[in-house]
Amino acid sequence: MDDPDDGFFGESVAAAYDDSSAAMFAPEAIEPAVGLLAELAGEGRALELGVGTGRLALPLARRGVPVHGIDLSRAMVERLRAKPGGADVEVTIGDFATTKVPGTFTVAYLVFNTIMNLTTQDAQVDCFRNVAAHLAPGGCFVVEVGVPDLRRLPPGQTAVPFHVGDGSWAYDLYDVATQAMSSNYVDVAGGKGRFRSIPFRYVWPAELDLMARLAGMRLRERWEGWTREPFTAESTRHVSIWEKP
Protein backbone atom coordinates (compact mmCIF):
# COMPACT_ATOMS: atom_id res chain seq x y z
CA MET A 1 0.00 0.00 0.00
CA ASP A 2 1.17 3.52 -0.77
CA ASP A 3 1.84 5.83 2.17
CA PRO A 4 -0.05 9.10 1.55
CA ASP A 5 2.87 11.00 3.12
CA ASP A 6 4.95 9.94 0.10
CA GLY A 7 2.81 12.10 -2.18
CA PHE A 8 2.58 10.91 -5.77
CA PHE A 9 5.74 8.81 -5.51
CA GLY A 10 4.66 6.09 -3.15
CA GLU A 11 5.61 2.44 -3.04
CA SER A 12 3.79 1.49 -6.24
CA VAL A 13 5.71 4.14 -8.20
CA ALA A 14 9.04 3.67 -6.41
CA ALA A 15 9.05 -0.09 -7.04
CA ALA A 16 9.07 0.43 -10.81
CA TYR A 17 10.66 3.88 -11.06
CA ASP A 18 14.12 2.92 -12.26
CA ASP A 19 12.76 0.54 -14.90
CA SER A 20 10.12 2.99 -16.13
CA SER A 21 12.77 5.73 -16.48
CA ALA A 22 15.47 3.43 -17.87
CA ALA A 23 16.58 5.86 -20.58
CA MET A 24 17.43 8.45 -17.93
CA PHE A 25 19.68 5.89 -16.17
CA ALA A 26 21.75 5.22 -19.30
CA PRO A 27 25.39 6.38 -19.16
CA GLU A 28 24.84 8.88 -21.97
CA ALA A 29 22.16 10.58 -19.84
CA ILE A 30 23.98 10.44 -16.51
CA GLU A 31 27.62 11.16 -17.33
CA PRO A 32 27.25 14.67 -18.83
CA ALA A 33 24.96 15.72 -15.98
CA VAL A 34 27.25 14.38 -13.27
CA GLY A 35 30.28 15.91 -14.99
CA LEU A 36 28.73 19.38 -15.00
CA LEU A 37 27.48 19.11 -11.42
CA ALA A 38 30.89 17.92 -10.20
CA GLU A 39 32.51 20.85 -11.99
CA LEU A 40 30.16 23.30 -10.29
CA ALA A 41 30.55 21.64 -6.89
CA GLY A 42 34.33 21.94 -6.96
CA GLU A 43 35.63 21.27 -3.46
CA GLY A 44 32.22 21.96 -1.91
CA ARG A 45 29.00 20.08 -1.24
CA ALA A 46 25.99 19.40 -3.44
CA LEU A 47 22.31 19.61 -2.52
CA GLU A 48 19.85 17.59 -4.61
CA LEU A 49 16.19 18.53 -4.40
CA GLY A 50 14.02 15.51 -5.14
CA VAL A 51 16.88 13.03 -4.74
CA GLY A 52 14.59 10.07 -5.45
CA THR A 53 16.35 6.74 -5.97
CA GLY A 54 19.75 8.38 -6.37
CA ARG A 55 20.08 8.47 -10.15
CA LEU A 56 22.51 11.42 -10.01
CA ALA A 57 23.35 11.58 -6.31
CA LEU A 58 25.10 8.21 -6.24
CA PRO A 59 27.46 8.71 -9.21
CA LEU A 60 28.16 12.26 -8.03
CA ALA A 61 29.08 10.95 -4.58
CA ARG A 62 31.34 8.36 -6.20
CA ARG A 63 33.25 11.26 -7.72
CA GLY A 64 34.02 12.47 -4.21
CA VAL A 65 31.36 15.18 -3.98
CA PRO A 66 29.46 15.10 -0.64
CA VAL A 67 25.76 15.03 -1.53
CA HIS A 68 22.79 15.84 0.68
CA GLY A 69 19.35 15.03 -0.72
CA ILE A 70 15.84 16.19 0.11
CA ASP A 71 12.82 14.11 -0.85
CA LEU A 72 9.23 13.76 0.32
CA SER A 73 8.98 10.07 -0.55
CA ARG A 74 10.39 7.56 1.92
CA ALA A 75 9.62 4.82 -0.61
CA MET A 76 11.92 6.40 -3.18
CA VAL A 77 14.66 7.01 -0.61
CA GLU A 78 14.49 3.37 0.52
CA ARG A 79 15.50 2.39 -3.06
CA LEU A 80 18.44 4.79 -2.86
CA ARG A 81 19.53 3.31 0.48
CA ALA A 82 19.42 -0.23 -0.95
CA LYS A 83 21.92 0.60 -3.71
CA PRO A 84 25.72 0.41 -3.36
CA GLY A 85 26.89 3.65 -1.78
CA GLY A 86 23.35 4.61 -0.77
CA ALA A 87 24.30 4.92 2.87
CA ASP A 88 26.88 7.57 1.98
CA VAL A 89 24.28 10.07 0.71
CA GLU A 90 22.68 12.08 3.49
CA VAL A 91 18.93 12.51 3.01
CA THR A 92 16.34 14.67 4.73
CA ILE A 93 12.68 13.76 4.29
CA GLY A 94 10.56 16.78 3.47
CA ASP A 95 9.19 19.24 0.93
CA PHE A 96 12.16 20.63 -0.96
CA ALA A 97 10.49 24.02 -1.36
CA THR A 98 10.79 24.74 2.36
CA THR A 99 12.88 22.05 4.09
CA LYS A 100 16.10 23.31 5.66
CA VAL A 101 19.26 21.22 6.06
CA PRO A 102 22.50 22.02 7.91
CA GLY A 103 25.45 23.75 6.27
CA THR A 104 26.01 25.47 2.94
CA PHE A 105 26.51 24.15 -0.57
CA THR A 106 28.38 25.19 -3.70
CA VAL A 107 25.76 23.68 -6.01
CA ALA A 108 22.09 22.76 -5.68
CA TYR A 109 20.21 21.00 -8.44
CA LEU A 110 16.68 20.04 -9.44
CA VAL A 111 16.46 17.82 -12.52
CA PHE A 112 14.16 15.76 -14.76
CA ASN A 113 11.24 18.27 -14.65
CA THR A 114 10.97 18.01 -10.87
CA ILE A 115 10.49 21.79 -10.43
CA MET A 116 7.04 21.16 -11.93
CA ASN A 117 6.12 18.86 -9.01
CA LEU A 118 5.61 22.11 -7.13
CA THR A 119 2.12 22.86 -8.38
CA THR A 120 1.81 26.56 -7.51
CA GLN A 121 3.85 29.58 -8.48
CA ASP A 122 4.27 30.45 -4.79
CA ALA A 123 5.82 27.04 -4.08
CA GLN A 124 8.22 27.42 -7.00
CA VAL A 125 9.27 30.86 -5.76
CA ASP A 126 9.72 29.43 -2.26
CA CYS A 127 11.99 26.76 -3.74
CA PHE A 128 14.31 29.35 -5.28
CA ARG A 129 14.45 31.26 -2.01
CA ASN A 130 15.13 28.06 -0.08
CA VAL A 131 17.98 27.17 -2.42
CA ALA A 132 19.48 30.67 -2.20
CA ALA A 133 19.49 30.37 1.59
CA HIS A 134 21.50 27.13 1.35
CA LEU A 135 24.06 28.28 -1.23
CA ALA A 136 27.44 29.70 -0.33
CA PRO A 137 28.37 33.00 -2.07
CA GLY A 138 29.22 32.14 -5.66
CA GLY A 139 27.21 28.93 -5.45
CA CYS A 140 24.94 27.80 -8.29
CA PHE A 141 21.42 26.45 -8.69
CA VAL A 142 20.89 24.10 -11.67
CA VAL A 143 17.45 23.24 -13.05
CA GLU A 144 16.66 20.82 -15.87
CA VAL A 145 13.09 21.15 -17.15
CA GLY A 146 11.11 20.91 -20.35
CA VAL A 147 9.82 23.87 -22.31
CA PRO A 148 5.99 23.84 -22.20
CA ASP A 149 4.79 21.95 -25.27
CA LEU A 150 1.95 24.32 -26.08
CA ARG A 151 2.89 24.62 -29.76
CA ARG A 152 1.32 21.18 -30.21
CA LEU A 153 -2.07 22.37 -28.96
CA PRO A 154 -4.49 23.59 -31.64
CA PRO A 155 -7.43 25.72 -30.45
CA GLY A 156 -9.78 23.71 -28.28
CA GLN A 157 -7.34 20.85 -27.58
CA THR A 158 -6.02 20.26 -24.08
CA ALA A 159 -4.35 16.82 -24.36
CA VAL A 160 -0.98 15.83 -25.85
CA PRO A 161 -0.16 12.08 -26.00
CA PHE A 162 3.45 11.13 -25.33
CA HIS A 163 3.25 7.33 -25.25
CA VAL A 164 1.07 4.84 -27.13
CA GLY A 165 1.88 1.16 -26.68
CA ASP A 166 0.38 -2.29 -26.39
CA GLY A 167 -1.75 -2.02 -23.29
CA SER A 168 -0.38 1.32 -22.12
CA TRP A 169 -1.04 4.94 -23.00
CA ALA A 170 0.13 8.24 -21.55
CA TYR A 171 -0.84 11.83 -22.21
CA ASP A 172 -0.41 15.32 -20.75
CA LEU A 173 -3.36 17.60 -20.02
CA TYR A 174 -2.82 21.38 -20.09
CA ASP A 175 -4.78 24.29 -18.63
CA VAL A 176 -3.25 27.30 -20.35
CA ALA A 177 -5.17 29.74 -18.12
CA THR A 178 -3.54 28.52 -14.89
CA GLN A 179 -0.38 26.72 -16.12
CA ALA A 180 -1.68 23.61 -14.39
CA MET A 181 -1.00 20.34 -16.16
CA SER A 182 -1.01 16.65 -15.41
CA SER A 183 0.65 13.54 -16.78
CA ASN A 184 -1.81 10.68 -17.05
CA TYR A 185 -1.08 6.98 -17.45
CA VAL A 186 -3.43 4.18 -18.49
CA ASP A 187 -2.33 0.54 -18.25
CA VAL A 188 -4.40 -2.52 -19.16
CA ALA A 189 -3.22 -6.05 -18.30
CA GLY A 190 -5.10 -9.28 -17.71
CA GLY A 191 -8.40 -7.62 -18.44
CA LYS A 192 -7.85 -5.03 -15.70
CA GLY A 193 -7.14 -1.33 -16.13
CA ARG A 194 -5.14 1.07 -13.98
CA PHE A 195 -5.18 4.86 -14.20
CA ARG A 196 -2.68 7.19 -12.56
CA SER A 197 -2.50 10.99 -12.76
CA ILE A 198 0.31 13.24 -11.47
CA PRO A 199 -0.26 17.01 -11.24
CA PHE A 200 2.35 19.58 -12.27
CA ARG A 201 2.69 23.28 -12.93
CA TYR A 202 4.55 24.10 -16.12
CA VAL A 203 6.90 27.07 -16.03
CA TRP A 204 8.60 29.20 -18.68
CA PRO A 205 12.36 29.94 -18.76
CA ALA A 206 11.77 33.68 -18.35
CA GLU A 207 9.52 33.01 -15.36
CA LEU A 208 12.26 30.94 -13.73
CA ASP A 209 14.71 33.81 -14.31
CA LEU A 210 12.37 36.14 -12.44
CA MET A 211 12.04 33.65 -9.58
CA ALA A 212 15.82 33.55 -9.37
CA ARG A 213 15.99 37.36 -9.26
CA LEU A 214 13.44 37.42 -6.44
CA ALA A 215 15.75 35.05 -4.55
CA GLY A 216 18.81 37.21 -5.21
CA MET A 217 20.38 35.07 -7.95
CA ARG A 218 21.22 35.82 -11.58
CA LEU A 219 21.26 33.71 -14.72
CA ARG A 220 24.74 32.45 -15.55
CA GLU A 221 24.14 29.90 -18.33
CA ARG A 222 21.30 28.28 -20.25
CA TRP A 223 21.74 25.33 -22.61
CA GLU A 224 19.43 22.91 -24.33
CA GLY A 225 20.92 19.98 -22.46
CA TRP A 226 23.74 18.70 -20.31
CA THR A 227 26.17 18.58 -23.22
CA ARG A 228 25.82 22.38 -23.48
CA GLU A 229 24.07 22.65 -26.85
CA PRO A 230 22.77 26.18 -27.56
CA PHE A 231 19.27 26.90 -26.30
CA THR A 232 17.07 28.01 -29.21
CA ALA A 233 13.43 28.64 -30.07
CA GLU A 234 13.19 24.97 -31.14
CA SER A 235 14.57 23.54 -27.88
CA THR A 236 12.17 21.29 -26.00
CA ARG A 237 14.02 21.53 -22.69
CA HIS A 238 16.74 23.52 -21.00
CA VAL A 239 19.44 23.24 -18.36
CA SER A 240 19.76 26.58 -16.62
CA ILE A 241 22.28 27.76 -14.04
CA TRP A 242 21.68 30.68 -11.69
CA GLU A 243 24.43 32.03 -9.45
CA LYS A 244 24.30 33.54 -6.00
CA PRO A 245 26.54 36.65 -5.81
How much of the sequence lies in strands comes to: 25-35%
Biggest β-sheet description: 7 strands, mixed
Please tally the helical runs, counting DSSP H or I stretches of 4 or more residues: 7
Spell the H/E element sequence: HHHEHEHEEHEEEEEHEE
Mean pLDDT: 96
State the strand order across the main sheet.
3-2-1-4-5-11-10
Unreliably modeled segments: none
From the spread of the alpha carbons, the general shape counts as globular
Helix coverage percent = 25-40%
Structural class: alpha/beta
Give the end-to-end Cα distance, rounded to a whole number of Å: 46 Å
Computed CA radius of gyration, to the nearest angstrom = 18 Å
The total count of strands amounts to 11
Structure description:
With 245 residues, the chain is α/β, with parallel strands linked by helices. The chain is 25% helix and 32% strand. It is built from 7 helices and 11 strands. It has helices at residues 11-14, 17-20, 27-41, 57-62, 74-82, 121-134, 205-214, and strands at residues 46-49, 67-71, 90-93, 105-110, 135-146, 159-165, 168-175, 180-189, 192-201, 218-223, 237-243. A 7-stranded mixed sheet has the order 3-2-1-4-5-11-10. A 4-stranded antiparallel sheet has the order 6-7-8-9, with no helix packed on it. It starts with 10 loop residues before the first helix and ends with a strand. The mean pLDDT is 96.
Structure described in brief:
The protein is α/β, with parallel strands linked by helices and 245 residues long. It contains 7 helices and 11 strands. Strands 3-2-1-4-5-11-10 form a 7-stranded mixed β-sheet. It has a 4-stranded antiparallel β-sheet with strand order 6-7-8-9, with no helix packed on it.
